[in-house]
Design goal:
With 403 residues, this protein is α/β, with parallel strands linked by helices. The chain has 14 helices and twelve strands.
Length: 403
Amino acid sequence: MRLRELLSVTRGAKQENRQKIVRAVLSRAGNQTDLVRRSGMSSATVSEAVRELERNGIVRTEKQGRDTLVRLAPVEGVAVGVELGYQKTVIVGRLAHQERHECVSRTLQVGASSGETHWVRAVAVAVQELVSEFGEPHDLATLGLAVPRMISPRTGRFAPPTLPPWEKGSVPDVALAEELADLRAATGGGERAPLPRPLLDNDANLGALAESIYAHSGREILLYVKASTGVGAGLCVGGRLFRGANGVAGEIGHVMVDPNGRFCLCGGRGCLETLIGADRLVDRARLVLGDKITAYRGLTDMIEKARTGDALAGRMLREAGTQLGYAIGNACNIINPNVVVVGGSLAQAGSLVLGPCRDAIEATAMTAAYEADTGFVVEASTVEHASAQGALLLGLEGTTYRD
Protein backbone atom coordinates (compact mmCIF):
# COMPACT_ATOMS: atom_id res chain seq x y z
CA MET A 1 0.00 0.00 0.00
CA ARG A 2 1.11 3.55 -0.69
CA LEU A 3 1.36 6.01 2.17
CA ARG A 4 -0.65 8.53 0.17
CA GLU A 5 -3.58 6.10 0.04
CA LEU A 6 -3.24 5.30 3.73
CA LEU A 7 -3.53 8.99 4.61
CA SER A 8 -6.41 9.75 2.26
CA VAL A 9 -9.37 11.59 3.77
CA THR A 10 -12.13 9.29 5.01
CA ARG A 11 -15.65 9.84 6.32
CA GLY A 12 -17.42 8.35 9.31
CA ALA A 13 -16.52 7.85 12.95
CA LYS A 14 -14.91 4.42 12.52
CA GLN A 15 -12.79 5.60 9.62
CA GLU A 16 -11.70 8.70 11.53
CA ASN A 17 -10.69 6.56 14.52
CA ARG A 18 -8.71 4.35 12.17
CA GLN A 19 -6.94 7.41 10.77
CA LYS A 20 -6.01 8.65 14.25
CA ILE A 21 -4.36 5.33 15.07
CA VAL A 22 -2.54 5.20 11.74
CA ARG A 23 -1.14 8.71 12.22
CA ALA A 24 -0.11 7.96 15.81
CA VAL A 25 1.75 4.81 14.73
CA LEU A 26 3.30 6.66 11.79
CA SER A 27 4.91 9.03 14.29
CA ARG A 28 6.14 6.28 16.59
CA ALA A 29 5.23 2.67 17.26
CA GLY A 30 3.61 2.27 20.66
CA ASN A 31 1.61 0.08 23.00
CA GLN A 32 -2.11 0.51 23.56
CA THR A 33 -1.70 2.80 26.59
CA ASP A 34 0.56 5.06 24.55
CA LEU A 35 -1.87 5.08 21.61
CA VAL A 36 -4.78 5.93 23.92
CA ARG A 37 -2.88 8.94 25.22
CA ARG A 38 -1.66 10.14 21.83
CA SER A 39 -4.93 9.59 19.94
CA GLY A 40 -7.23 10.95 22.64
CA MET A 41 -9.59 7.97 22.25
CA SER A 42 -10.80 5.41 24.80
CA SER A 43 -9.00 2.12 25.34
CA ALA A 44 -11.94 0.16 23.89
CA THR A 45 -12.04 2.33 20.76
CA VAL A 46 -8.29 1.99 20.26
CA SER A 47 -8.45 -1.80 20.69
CA GLU A 48 -11.23 -2.08 18.13
CA ALA A 49 -9.41 0.15 15.64
CA VAL A 50 -6.12 -1.75 16.05
CA ARG A 51 -7.86 -5.11 15.50
CA GLU A 52 -9.47 -3.84 12.29
CA LEU A 53 -6.20 -2.34 11.03
CA GLU A 54 -4.38 -5.59 11.76
CA ARG A 55 -7.01 -7.64 9.91
CA ASN A 56 -6.53 -5.37 6.91
CA GLY A 57 -2.75 -5.75 7.03
CA ILE A 58 -2.12 -2.07 7.85
CA VAL A 59 -0.52 -2.58 11.28
CA ARG A 60 1.32 -5.43 12.95
CA THR A 61 1.34 -6.26 16.63
CA GLU A 62 4.01 -8.00 18.68
CA LYS A 63 4.20 -8.97 22.31
CA GLN A 64 6.77 -7.19 24.49
CA GLY A 65 6.38 -8.59 27.97
CA ARG A 66 2.92 -7.61 29.17
CA ASP A 67 2.53 -5.02 26.44
CA THR A 68 1.53 -5.37 22.82
CA LEU A 69 3.50 -3.09 20.50
CA VAL A 70 1.67 -1.77 17.46
CA ARG A 71 3.76 -1.05 14.35
CA LEU A 72 2.86 0.06 10.87
CA ALA A 73 3.19 -2.62 8.20
CA PRO A 74 5.61 -1.72 5.36
CA VAL A 75 4.22 0.88 2.96
CA GLU A 76 5.52 2.71 -0.08
CA GLY A 77 6.48 6.33 0.41
CA VAL A 78 9.21 8.46 1.95
CA ALA A 79 8.48 11.00 4.70
CA VAL A 80 10.84 13.99 4.70
CA GLY A 81 11.44 16.82 7.17
CA VAL A 82 13.47 19.95 6.39
CA GLU A 83 14.88 22.36 8.96
CA LEU A 84 15.76 25.54 7.10
CA GLY A 85 18.03 27.45 9.47
CA TYR A 86 19.67 30.84 9.05
CA GLN A 87 23.04 29.49 7.97
CA LYS A 88 22.48 25.79 7.25
CA THR A 89 19.75 23.28 6.43
CA VAL A 90 19.16 19.80 7.83
CA ILE A 91 17.05 17.27 5.92
CA VAL A 92 15.87 13.95 7.37
CA GLY A 93 13.89 11.19 5.68
CA ARG A 94 12.65 7.68 6.31
CA LEU A 95 10.17 5.20 4.95
CA ALA A 96 6.91 5.84 6.71
CA HIS A 97 6.96 2.54 8.63
CA GLN A 98 10.53 2.97 9.86
CA GLU A 99 11.58 4.34 13.23
CA ARG A 100 13.45 7.58 13.92
CA HIS A 101 16.85 5.91 14.31
CA GLU A 102 16.52 4.62 10.75
CA CYS A 103 16.36 8.12 9.29
CA VAL A 104 18.78 9.24 6.59
CA SER A 105 19.99 12.81 7.04
CA ARG A 106 21.77 15.50 5.05
CA THR A 107 23.25 18.82 6.18
CA LEU A 108 23.64 21.67 3.69
CA GLN A 109 25.80 24.74 4.25
CA VAL A 110 23.08 27.01 2.92
CA GLY A 111 20.21 28.59 4.81
CA ALA A 112 17.48 31.19 4.72
CA SER A 113 19.99 34.05 5.03
CA SER A 114 21.53 32.93 1.72
CA GLY A 115 18.42 34.16 -0.10
CA GLU A 116 15.59 32.20 -1.66
CA THR A 117 17.33 31.85 -5.02
CA HIS A 118 20.18 29.94 -3.39
CA TRP A 119 18.53 27.85 -0.71
CA VAL A 120 15.44 26.67 -2.57
CA ARG A 121 17.39 25.03 -5.38
CA ALA A 122 19.92 23.40 -3.06
CA VAL A 123 17.22 22.07 -0.73
CA ALA A 124 15.02 20.75 -3.55
CA VAL A 125 17.95 18.90 -5.13
CA ALA A 126 18.95 17.42 -1.76
CA VAL A 127 15.38 16.28 -1.03
CA GLN A 128 15.15 14.65 -4.45
CA GLU A 129 18.50 12.89 -4.00
CA LEU A 130 17.62 11.70 -0.50
CA VAL A 131 14.31 10.22 -1.67
CA SER A 132 16.00 8.48 -4.60
CA GLU A 133 18.26 6.60 -2.16
CA PHE A 134 15.27 4.53 -1.04
CA GLY A 135 14.83 3.23 -4.59
CA GLU A 136 11.76 2.22 -6.55
CA PRO A 137 8.82 2.19 -5.97
CA HIS A 138 9.28 4.77 -3.23
CA ASP A 139 8.52 8.42 -3.85
CA LEU A 140 8.16 11.57 -1.76
CA ALA A 141 4.91 11.09 0.20
CA THR A 142 4.94 13.77 2.91
CA LEU A 143 7.05 16.86 3.46
CA GLY A 144 7.33 19.19 6.45
CA LEU A 145 9.32 22.42 6.58
CA ALA A 146 10.63 24.08 9.76
CA VAL A 147 11.63 27.73 9.49
CA PRO A 148 12.86 30.42 11.89
CA ARG A 149 10.16 33.01 12.64
CA MET A 150 6.50 32.87 13.57
CA ILE A 151 3.91 31.07 11.45
CA SER A 152 0.22 31.85 11.90
CA PRO A 153 -1.81 28.67 12.48
CA ARG A 154 -4.78 30.41 10.85
CA THR A 155 -3.12 31.07 7.51
CA GLY A 156 0.10 29.04 7.34
CA ARG A 157 1.95 32.26 6.47
CA PHE A 158 4.41 34.40 8.44
CA ALA A 159 2.76 36.23 11.32
CA PRO A 160 3.42 39.98 11.38
CA PRO A 161 5.87 41.54 11.50
CA THR A 162 7.81 39.67 8.81
CA LEU A 163 11.38 39.65 10.12
CA PRO A 164 14.71 39.03 8.37
CA PRO A 165 15.89 36.83 6.78
CA TRP A 166 12.40 36.86 5.26
CA GLU A 167 10.81 39.56 3.16
CA LYS A 168 7.16 40.56 3.09
CA GLY A 169 5.31 38.09 0.90
CA SER A 170 7.84 35.27 1.37
CA VAL A 171 6.23 31.84 1.02
CA PRO A 172 9.05 29.29 1.53
CA ASP A 173 6.75 26.25 1.36
CA VAL A 174 5.32 27.34 -2.00
CA ALA A 175 8.78 28.17 -3.32
CA LEU A 176 10.07 24.72 -2.33
CA ALA A 177 7.03 22.96 -3.83
CA GLU A 178 7.47 24.77 -7.14
CA GLU A 179 11.18 23.97 -7.29
CA LEU A 180 10.53 20.29 -6.57
CA ALA A 181 7.92 20.21 -9.33
CA ASP A 182 10.34 21.85 -11.79
CA LEU A 183 13.06 19.35 -10.89
CA ARG A 184 10.71 16.42 -11.38
CA ALA A 185 9.59 17.73 -14.77
CA ALA A 186 13.21 18.26 -15.83
CA THR A 187 14.10 14.67 -14.93
CA GLY A 188 11.09 13.12 -16.65
CA GLY A 189 9.18 12.27 -13.49
CA GLY A 190 5.90 13.89 -14.46
CA GLU A 191 4.03 10.58 -14.61
CA ARG A 192 4.56 9.80 -10.93
CA ALA A 193 2.03 10.58 -8.19
CA PRO A 194 1.53 14.29 -7.44
CA LEU A 195 4.01 15.84 -5.04
CA PRO A 196 2.75 16.52 -1.51
CA ARG A 197 2.12 20.06 -0.36
CA PRO A 198 4.87 21.02 2.11
CA LEU A 199 3.50 21.81 5.57
CA LEU A 200 5.12 24.77 7.33
CA ASP A 201 5.71 25.70 10.95
CA ASN A 202 8.14 27.44 13.28
CA ASP A 203 11.39 25.55 13.98
CA ALA A 204 11.11 25.75 17.78
CA ASN A 205 7.52 24.49 17.65
CA LEU A 206 8.60 21.48 15.64
CA GLY A 207 11.57 20.85 17.92
CA ALA A 208 9.08 20.73 20.80
CA LEU A 209 6.89 18.27 18.88
CA ALA A 210 9.81 15.91 18.25
CA GLU A 211 10.97 16.07 21.87
CA SER A 212 7.45 15.43 23.12
CA ILE A 213 6.87 12.37 20.92
CA TYR A 214 10.32 10.82 20.95
CA ALA A 215 11.86 11.71 24.31
CA HIS A 216 9.15 12.85 26.75
CA SER A 217 5.93 11.17 25.67
CA GLY A 218 4.66 10.86 29.24
CA ARG A 219 5.11 14.54 30.10
CA GLU A 220 2.02 16.74 30.16
CA ILE A 221 3.69 20.12 29.51
CA LEU A 222 6.99 20.44 27.67
CA LEU A 223 8.84 23.68 26.92
CA TYR A 224 11.51 23.41 24.23
CA VAL A 225 13.88 26.35 23.90
CA LYS A 226 15.97 26.63 20.75
CA ALA A 227 18.91 28.97 21.23
CA SER A 228 20.96 29.47 18.08
CA THR A 229 21.20 32.49 15.79
CA GLY A 230 17.73 33.32 17.05
CA VAL A 231 16.07 32.32 20.31
CA GLY A 232 12.61 30.77 20.31
CA ALA A 233 10.53 28.26 22.19
CA GLY A 234 7.86 25.69 21.45
CA LEU A 235 5.24 24.43 23.86
CA CYS A 236 3.57 21.00 23.85
CA VAL A 237 0.58 20.33 26.10
CA GLY A 238 -0.67 16.76 26.25
CA GLY A 239 1.48 15.86 23.25
CA ARG A 240 -0.06 18.59 21.09
CA LEU A 241 1.50 21.86 20.01
CA PHE A 242 0.20 25.04 21.59
CA ARG A 243 0.81 27.79 19.03
CA GLY A 244 -1.30 30.64 20.38
CA ALA A 245 -3.97 32.62 18.53
CA ASN A 246 -1.58 33.92 15.87
CA GLY A 247 1.45 31.66 16.22
CA VAL A 248 3.35 33.89 18.66
CA ALA A 249 3.28 31.54 21.66
CA GLY A 250 6.82 30.73 22.75
CA GLU A 251 8.61 33.79 21.35
CA ILE A 252 10.87 33.86 24.38
CA GLY A 253 13.67 35.48 22.37
CA HIS A 254 11.62 38.66 22.24
CA VAL A 255 11.04 38.91 25.97
CA MET A 256 12.54 42.24 27.08
CA VAL A 257 15.39 41.76 29.55
CA ASP A 258 17.05 45.21 29.28
CA PRO A 259 14.84 48.27 28.55
CA ASN A 260 17.96 50.25 27.62
CA GLY A 261 19.53 47.49 25.58
CA ARG A 262 20.12 47.09 21.86
CA PHE A 263 17.33 47.54 19.38
CA CYS A 264 15.94 44.28 18.01
CA LEU A 265 14.74 43.34 14.53
CA CYS A 266 11.25 42.88 15.96
CA GLY A 267 11.08 46.61 16.76
CA GLY A 268 11.59 46.05 20.46
CA ARG A 269 14.58 46.90 22.60
CA GLY A 270 16.70 44.78 24.90
CA CYS A 271 15.15 41.48 23.76
CA LEU A 272 16.77 38.28 25.03
CA GLU A 273 17.84 37.46 21.47
CA THR A 274 19.96 40.65 21.35
CA LEU A 275 21.98 39.33 24.30
CA ILE A 276 22.40 35.61 23.74
CA GLY A 277 21.79 34.98 20.04
CA ALA A 278 24.80 33.17 18.56
CA ASP A 279 25.89 36.02 16.29
CA ARG A 280 25.47 38.57 19.08
CA LEU A 281 27.64 36.55 21.50
CA VAL A 282 30.42 36.30 18.93
CA ASP A 283 30.16 40.01 18.04
CA ARG A 284 30.45 40.99 21.71
CA ALA A 285 33.54 38.82 22.08
CA ARG A 286 35.13 40.46 19.05
CA LEU A 287 34.66 43.89 20.61
CA VAL A 288 36.78 42.70 23.54
CA LEU A 289 39.40 40.84 21.52
CA GLY A 290 39.80 43.40 18.76
CA ASP A 291 42.94 42.73 16.71
CA LYS A 292 44.98 41.46 19.63
CA ILE A 293 44.38 37.77 19.00
CA THR A 294 42.32 35.68 16.63
CA ALA A 295 38.61 36.19 17.36
CA TYR A 296 36.17 33.31 17.65
CA ARG A 297 35.05 32.04 14.27
CA GLY A 298 31.54 31.34 15.54
CA LEU A 299 29.61 30.02 18.52
CA THR A 300 30.92 26.46 18.08
CA ASP A 301 34.48 27.78 18.18
CA MET A 302 33.67 29.83 21.30
CA ILE A 303 32.28 26.71 23.01
CA GLU A 304 35.36 24.66 22.10
CA LYS A 305 37.68 27.34 23.47
CA ALA A 306 35.64 27.62 26.68
CA ARG A 307 36.09 23.90 27.23
CA THR A 308 39.86 24.29 26.99
CA GLY A 309 39.89 27.02 29.62
CA ASP A 310 39.40 30.25 27.63
CA ALA A 311 38.31 32.70 30.36
CA LEU A 312 36.37 35.10 28.14
CA ALA A 313 34.47 32.37 26.28
CA GLY A 314 33.60 30.61 29.53
CA ARG A 315 32.36 33.81 31.18
CA MET A 316 30.22 34.78 28.20
CA LEU A 317 28.61 31.35 27.97
CA ARG A 318 27.87 31.24 31.69
CA GLU A 319 26.23 34.67 31.51
CA ALA A 320 24.25 33.59 28.46
CA GLY A 321 23.00 30.60 30.46
CA THR A 322 22.01 32.89 33.31
CA GLN A 323 20.07 35.27 31.03
CA LEU A 324 18.33 32.32 29.41
CA GLY A 325 17.47 30.89 32.82
CA TYR A 326 15.88 34.14 33.98
CA ALA A 327 13.60 34.13 30.93
CA ILE A 328 12.75 30.44 31.36
CA GLY A 329 12.10 30.95 35.08
CA ASN A 330 9.55 33.64 34.30
CA ALA A 331 7.95 31.33 31.74
CA CYS A 332 7.80 28.57 34.37
CA ASN A 333 5.74 30.84 36.63
CA ILE A 334 3.20 31.22 33.81
CA ILE A 335 2.97 27.77 32.23
CA ASN A 336 4.46 25.48 34.94
CA PRO A 337 6.06 22.90 32.59
CA ASN A 338 7.05 19.39 33.63
CA VAL A 339 10.21 19.49 31.54
CA VAL A 340 12.34 22.18 29.90
CA VAL A 341 14.51 21.07 26.99
CA VAL A 342 17.25 23.36 25.67
CA GLY A 343 18.27 22.81 22.07
CA GLY A 344 20.06 24.69 19.32
CA SER A 345 23.74 25.50 19.06
CA LEU A 346 23.94 27.08 22.54
CA ALA A 347 22.94 23.75 24.10
CA GLN A 348 26.16 22.24 22.73
CA ALA A 349 27.94 24.01 25.58
CA GLY A 350 26.35 21.51 27.98
CA SER A 351 26.94 22.27 31.67
CA LEU A 352 28.69 25.56 30.84
CA VAL A 353 25.25 26.93 29.93
CA LEU A 354 22.82 24.51 31.59
CA GLY A 355 24.33 24.87 35.07
CA PRO A 356 23.87 28.67 35.25
CA CYS A 357 20.54 28.27 33.48
CA ARG A 358 19.20 25.98 36.20
CA ASP A 359 20.48 28.30 38.94
CA ALA A 360 18.76 31.28 37.30
CA ILE A 361 15.49 29.37 36.96
CA GLU A 362 15.55 28.65 40.68
CA ALA A 363 16.32 32.31 41.38
CA THR A 364 13.39 33.47 39.25
CA ALA A 365 10.62 30.88 39.39
CA MET A 366 8.44 30.05 42.36
CA THR A 367 9.60 26.95 44.22
CA ALA A 368 6.56 24.93 43.15
CA ALA A 369 7.43 25.58 39.50
CA TYR A 370 10.79 23.80 39.61
CA GLU A 371 10.67 21.32 42.50
CA ALA A 372 12.50 18.14 41.56
CA ASP A 373 10.10 15.91 43.52
CA THR A 374 7.33 16.94 41.13
CA GLY A 375 9.35 15.55 38.23
CA PHE A 376 10.52 18.90 36.87
CA VAL A 377 13.75 18.67 34.86
CA VAL A 378 15.91 20.94 32.73
CA GLU A 379 18.07 19.15 30.17
CA ALA A 380 19.75 19.46 26.82
CA SER A 381 17.96 18.08 23.78
CA THR A 382 18.56 14.39 23.13
CA VAL A 383 16.72 14.21 19.78
CA GLU A 384 19.23 14.75 17.01
CA HIS A 385 18.02 17.31 14.46
CA ALA A 386 14.90 17.89 16.57
CA SER A 387 13.35 20.59 14.36
CA ALA A 388 13.87 18.54 11.18
CA GLN A 389 12.40 15.48 12.91
CA GLY A 390 9.46 17.60 14.03
CA ALA A 391 8.98 18.77 10.44
CA LEU A 392 8.87 15.13 9.32
CA LEU A 393 6.22 14.46 11.98
CA LEU A 394 4.23 17.49 10.86
CA GLY A 395 4.08 16.07 7.35
CA LEU A 396 2.96 12.68 8.64
CA GLU A 397 0.28 14.23 10.83
CA GLY A 398 -1.07 16.03 7.79
CA THR A 399 -1.90 19.10 9.85
CA THR A 400 -4.20 21.51 8.07
CA TYR A 401 -4.63 25.18 8.90
CA ARG A 402 -7.83 26.58 10.32
CA ASP A 403 -10.20 28.45 7.98
